């Protein structure tokens, strides 16, 4: 029993490192493990065939190409549907658009040169 | 075989079938609507789901051959550069459509007379206007009055935000002197949902029809329409979820199964009198398939534009090149639509396809060079009717009820190729003028056979058309087609608004003449 628990812990820690290597975070965006409940995610994916491959390779050096193939979709889906990430994207957007002005649609239409009836 | 009875039977609970179901539900008659797909919960297909970017590749994949659900039938597109997109469920393709909701132009109803292409409709824009207005009211269409491309369209809801990318493209179109207008969208603004609320045919029509007593039976696939010796349709044989075959008797039958599904049922309903398919004495059934070939041009900008936000289908559009003009080398024309750019997951997948992104240290660096910085434009080409473009039954590939699938035989015409090329060049010019650093373009887009038109066209004579002005099959008095199969020309705009307006018009005609049919 203890041996099984240790093994699961090892896989969990290993996966945490893999996830954060895949999506490390930046100035606006949180790292994967900050954004996603990894325990829940591992429970969710542990029965999948792909997960068995991860178990077999747990001691190998992190090979991003290998993990992209088997975990890519899972990582992207879990990360970009996280509330923390949605908020981070919103904050990032506000900062990037701070100095960008939008013109009123009616003003833009009043500047349209094409007035001829097209129908 | 079990036998059931109804007064009016509607086959298909999508955009067209739902509109007719609601319109006819005011009659004091027993109305049944059979739908081969399941009844999904609103939360599953909601526009506002955070995982919408994921489900569009899975449960809500537009390609039936990739979904392969019980409700899907095989569609063999080996002989077509464009594959068919649809969704089989209660609500049909409106569960996944973008909600871009323009009307046809008045000239779209007379392309034969004006340009000697396709065929003319047996009614015009003015005849349909009443039903466009009714449908807009039922749907709740956002937009702006005063578009020079259309006759006056009133009672629109407040237009949707066109976003930063819309601003940039609108300014550029002004600079070029080209027409543009904010999109007509079947999307309502909402404080709670920033993306707006996009109702489907279920919320717009079907739920109201059900309240009025219409019975909707999901997971029920119509296999054949049965005929009497007197040449009257007596009912249909359908298969339920457990593949039990049931005979449903009906006084009137309305087909609303799309430009692919409707000819499939008719072609499978052969009998001694109609060995080439029911209602096919003209030989036109399944022919003249039109698909709206789509061009795609995308510009990448150095500045972040939040271009991934805005209306799902179209923020603004241009009809600058909508009509025939001498010197362009092709007849009819196209719409340029400003789309929203993909979300982060789709952006990643797109970049990965070209080996331009990997997970790791540079993940965000690479992702944010594209995400929110690309402006995609779509070119929706008017397709010209051609008898060689057709659908027929595919006996080698059957659905899970044992009914033959569909084989699509479709080629892009020289006219369309020239139109696509013209559209792509104009869009490149537009994006370059707007300041795009890199431009990517291709066409026709393979997985974009959304708008299925023309396979049971309307016409005056039973020798060269399938239905009359009111969608009634020339060959069978109590059999109507209320979907886009009957369109004799395709226009250069999305068809949902016209599909529903036509369905309302035909069902109004049936309502007014109901005693003629029920007495039979």
Structure in a nutshell:
By secondary structure, chain A is mainly alpha-helical.
- How many helices of chain A? The count is 7
Structural class of chain A: mainly alpha
Mean pLDDT of chain A: 80
Radius of gyration of chain B: 22 Å
Helical residue percent band of chain B: 25-40%
| Helical content of chain A (DSSP H or I, runs of 4+) | 55-70%
Using the coordinates shown, work out and report the CATH topology of chain B: FAD/NAD(P)-binding domain
Low-confidence segments of chain B: none
- Termini of chain B, distance in Å? 24 Å
Number of helices of chain B: 14
Overall shape of chain A:
elongated
Distance from N terminus to C terminus of chain A (CA atoms, Å) equals 77 Å
- Assembly state (oligomeric): heterodimer
Biggest interface pair, residues each? A-B, 37 and 47 residues
Determine and state the CATH class of chain B. Answer: Alpha Beta
- Give me the strand/helix succession of chain A: HHHHHHH
Q: What is the CATH superfamily label of chain B?
A: FAD/NAD(P)-binding domain
Shape of chain B: globular
N to C succession of SSEs of chain B: EHEHHHEHHHEHEEEEHEEEHHEEEHEEHH
Could you please describe the fold and organization of this structure?
Chain A has 7 helices and no strands. Chain A is mainly alpha-helical and 119 residues long. Chain A is elongated, with a radius of gyration of 23 Å. The radius of gyration of chain B is 22 Å and the shape is globular. Helices cover 27% and strands 18% of the residues of chain B. In chain B, strand 13 and strand 14 form a beta hairpin. In chain B, helix 6 crosses helix 13. Chain B has one domain: FAD/NAD(P)-binding domain (3-Layer(bba) Sandwich). Chain B has 520 residues and is an alpha/beta fold. Chain B is built from 14 helices and 16 strands. The longest helix of chain B is centred in the last third of the chain and has 21 residues. In chain B, strands 1, 2, 5, 6, 7, 8 and 16 form a 7-stranded mixed sheet that branches. Chains A and B meet through helix 5, helix 6 and helix 7 of A and helix 7, strand 4, helix 10 and helix 11 of B.
